[in-house]
């Protein structure tokens, strides 16, 4: 159930299939495009690319985390192996109890499990559009649907509109989805707005808050939603070790929620047994790496800001981001051929995110990665008059 959207969907269906094929990637649903596709070339080809497409941490895991994984190899042949006490480590990190933690194979599993748990009987998920499409794609896969509320003109999520839709359709909604900061735009929902949601919708309506990019936010108006879990609200916070902890390929994440919510979700997840032993030890070690993560955060934010400013000086507006990626407007150019143009320069950039098909999502890499990206961008796109950013700050 799509609410009328202000962005143009024109010219979408002609180019996505061709773009996917040209990238040497396995095709996914043309409408979904919600998951990173598996690279099908060899290692040498893959290693030669600048990889700023999938919001990864290009600096990689720190030595302490690598050592923890190396240590865990001795349990590779065991089923009932030690786990680095990862669940307790997560609980301590957030000031919650073990019963409030659900370990998963990446935060993507959290999103799927919430869908399977709360969308039975044809219930709907309510969320913003565009947002992280995995939630909506999973709803479709289990014969459910979504109520999507378009973003505002400044790319913020329309919180009043979403609250109104939740109340108007309360009997049919399984859960309310907030991606904060939002993917693909990088824009945050302020703590004030989250509170409006919590207090403005039916008290028994579950709220899934996806905080995959929490660590990269420097907007003081933002706040994590974990305190609502401590209050006993039906709030589920999804977190991942794929981003700032640089463990994307290890597939480890978790949910923080009230114990009764965790117990309701648990039957639909692989739970701790679905996360491999190396990932468990790595995740526990990464929670201790506060200094290392602070440095990654500092470098990421600095490169996010400097790259955005240079693109705007070149004449291409950037949506102000609070994540380890940003979206740049290509004006009248489309994303699909742009992806191929960058690939020809050995640079992988983000996939299409309909209906924003003239916006390119770019992940933040290392200094040398962003330098190569900017050089390529200026070779592909002509200089225009300097512009400023294209979104308003979060609501205070």
Structure description:
There is one protein chain. With about 400 residues, this protein is α/β, with parallel strands linked by helices. The relative contact order is 0.18. The strands form 3 sheets. Strands 2-8-7-6-5-3-4 form a 7-stranded mixed sheet, with helices on both faces. It is globular, with a radius of gyration of 20 Å. The two termini are about 30 Å apart. About 35% of the residues lie in helices and about 15% in strands.
Describe what is shown at a glance.
With 396 residues, the protein is α/β, with parallel strands linked by helices.
Q: Indicate the low-confidence ranges by residue numbers.
A: 2-34
Number of helical elements? 14
Helix content: 25-40%
CA-CA gap between termini: 30 Å
Largest sheet: 7 strands, mixed
For the largest beta sheet, what order do the strands appear in spatially?
2-8-7-6-5-3-4
Strand content: 5-15%
What is the subunit organization of this protein?
A: single chain
**SSE succession:** HHEHHEHEHEHEHEHEEHHHEEHEEH
Q: Mean of the pLDDT scores?
A: 90
Structural class: alpha/beta
Q: Which geometry do the CA atoms define?
A: globular
Radius of gyration: 20 Å
**What is the tally of beta strands?**
12
């Amino acid at each position: 159930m799509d609410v009328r959207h202000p962005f143009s969907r024109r010219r979408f269906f002609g180019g996505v299939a061709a773009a996917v094929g040209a990238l040497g990637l396995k095709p996914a649903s043309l409408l979904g495009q919600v998951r990173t596709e598996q690279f099908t070339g060899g290692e040498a080809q893959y290693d030669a690319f600048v990889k700023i497409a999938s919001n990864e941490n290009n600096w990689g895991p720190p030595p302490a985390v690598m050592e923890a994984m190396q240590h865990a190899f001795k349990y590779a042949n065991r089923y009932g192996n030690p786990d680095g006490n990862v669940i307790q480590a997560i609980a301590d990190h957030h000031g919650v109890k073990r019963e409030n933690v659900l370990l998963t194979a990446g935060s993507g599993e959290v999103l799927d499990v919430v869908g399977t748990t709360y969308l039975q009987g044809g219930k709907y998920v309510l969320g913003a559009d565009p947002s992280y499409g995995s939630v909506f794609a999973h709803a479709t896969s289990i014969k459910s649907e979504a109520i999507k509320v378009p973003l505002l003109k400044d790319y913020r999520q329309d919180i009043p509109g979403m609250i109104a839709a939740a109340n108007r359709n309360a009997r049919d909604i399984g859960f309310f989805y907030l991606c904060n900061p939002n993917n693909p735009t990088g824009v945050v929902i302020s703590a004030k707005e989250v509170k409006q949601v919590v207090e403005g919708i039916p008290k028994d309506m579950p709220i899934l808050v996806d905080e995959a990019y929490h660590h990269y936010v420097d907007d003081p108006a933002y706040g994590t939603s974990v305190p609502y879990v401590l209050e006993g609200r039906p709030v589920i916070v999804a977190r991942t070790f794929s981003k700032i902890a640089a463990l994307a390929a290890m597939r480890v994440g978790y949910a923080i929620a009230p114990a009764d919510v965790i117990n309701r979700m648990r039957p639909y997840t692989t739970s701790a047994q679905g996360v491999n032993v190396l990932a468990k030890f790595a995740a526990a070690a990464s929670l201790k790496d506060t200094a290392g993560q602070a440095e990654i955060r500092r470098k990421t934010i600095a490169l996010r800001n400097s790259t955005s400013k240079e693109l705007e000086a070149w004449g291409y507006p950037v949506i102000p981001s609070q994540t380890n990626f940003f979206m740049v407007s290509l004006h009248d150019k489309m994303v699909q051929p742009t992806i191929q143009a960058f690939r020809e320069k050995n640079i992988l950039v983000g996939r299409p995110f309909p209906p924003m098909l003239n916006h390119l999502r770019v992940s933040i890499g290392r200094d040398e990665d962003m330098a190569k990206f900017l050089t390529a961008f200026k070779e592909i796109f002509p200089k225009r008059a300097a512009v400023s950013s294209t979104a308003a700050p979060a609501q205070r």
